[in-house]
Write a structure and sequence with these properties.
Length: about 200
């Protein structure tokens, strides 16, 4: 398998999952501004959508969209327990969280990274995100991870998105449960190893 990624982008989520699962993968760094890839080539030829993550399977087929990729990866190694079994209510709860993170957190950060956004727009987005953070903090104040069963692919996604708050806000200090969650995630060997690998990739 190949994972097309950009350090610090939402592709960190499947990167963490791959490390946690111990699945063999080749990583290919993508410059999201120029669409160039390490080693040459046009990323748009891989994914016409123009963004990461992209997972190229061993048969050459392409899978895009983070929530789909992380579930595919979890199902490659079900004994690891990173996603409940398909068809169960627990799996639908996982998908519920993945959809929430994707629509109510991930995309809500976009205006904060956009240099053309006005301050009024940014403040409105931070207020919206703060409401979502408060909602998540209610769950994480009662249990260590999003699912009662423990760490799952949804946590890899949530952690990835919450790291962006350190660059553009809102400040997670307002939610001690979220700060404790981030520390708990960073203490996981798989997460720490992935972060180190992406820091190295960013240097090159």
């Amino acid at each position: 398998m190949k994972l097309y990624f950009s350090p610090g982008a939402c592709s960190l989520s499947p990167h963490i999952v791959l490390t946690e699962l111990g699945l063999p993968v080749e990583t290919v760094k993508v410059d999201l501004r120029t669409k160039a890839m390490d080693g040459g080539g046009d990323f748009l030829a891989i994914n016409p959508k123009g963004y990461v993550p992209v997972l190229q399977l061993d048969d050459g087929s392409i899978l895009t969209e983070g929530p789909a990729i992380v579930q595919y990866l979890a199902d490659r190694k079900p004994e690891a327990g990173l996603a409940p079994a398909n068809g169960t209510m627990e799996r639908y709860r996982l998908q519920e969280w993945l959809n929430f993170i994707s629509t109510e957190l991930h995309k809500q950060f976009s205006p904060l990274f956009n240099p053309d956004s006005t301050e009024a727009v940014k403040e409105a987005q931070k207020k919206r995100l703060s409401q979502r953070f408060a909602f998540i903090a209610q769950t994480l104040g009662k249990q260590d991870y999003l699912l009662p069963s423990g760490f799952s692919v949804a946590d890899a996604y949530l952690y990835t998105v919450l790291t962006w708050a350190g660059f553009v806000g809102p400040d997670l200090a307002a939610w001690p449960a979220l700060q404790a969650y981030m520390a708990r995630m960073q203490a996981r060997p798989g997460v720490a190893a992935t972060l180190a690998a992406e820091r190295e990739a960013k240097k090159s």
